[in-house]
Design brief:
Blueprint: H1 3-12, H2 30-33, E1 44-46, E2 53-55, H3 62-66, H4 71-74, H5 93-98, H6 109-114, H7 145-159
Antiparallel strand pairs: 1-2
Length: about 160
């Protein structure tokens, strides 16, 4: 879909090119967002950052919503703005480096701090991948798949001697 297609659709439903309907918040994965039953007549919009027609998400962070021009840096498509898998808020590039996960998803620092961590590497799983934890002890300690695989490979090397 191009900007022209979006303009035509918006003109047919009497909408401006930038939707002023209720905000669309990122919720775990795009396919889950598409199943929402909201009042938005169309799911896509022009991303204010890359200018492509895509799903455009608003930030869930209160401090971003309260800043007058806050939308300029954290309103955008999935490719332009990294979003937390748990809360849907924007993630700074500095935060991305600090919140390593045992899975491939992103978490903001606030959500990262709340999750239990691997007893070996101190990385958490997001809630979506919590079923991948191994060796869950009664105290809540676990070992992530990467650490378990590494331990297994070390054991197999030791058995080969």
């Amino acid at each position: 879909m191009t900007n022209h297609h979006l303009d035509v659709i918006n003109s047919l439903i009497c909408r401006s090119s930038q939707q002023d309907a209720e905000a669309l918040y990122y919720n775990h994965r795009v396919h889950e967002v598409l199943n929402t039953d909201d009042s938005r007549p169309i799911d896509v919009d022009v991303c204010p950052l890359c200018r492509n027609v895509r799903l455009v998400f608003d930030c869930t962070r209160k401090d971003c919503r309260e800043v007058k021009d806050g939308w300029t840096h954290c309103r955008g498509c999935f490719f332009c703005v990294a979003r937390c898998e748990t809360c849907g808020g924007c993630i700074d590039l500095e935060e991305l480096g600090e919140t390593g996960l045992a899975c491939s998803d992103f978490l903001c620092m606030d959500c990262w701090l709340k999750l239990p961590k691997c007893s070996t590497c101190n990385r958490p799983y997001c809630e979506r991948h919590s079923n991948l934890k191994e060796n869950l002890s009664p105290s809540g300690q676990f070992t992530c798949q990467e650490c378990t695989a590494f331990d297994t490979s070390l054991e197999s090397l030791g058995d080969g001697d």
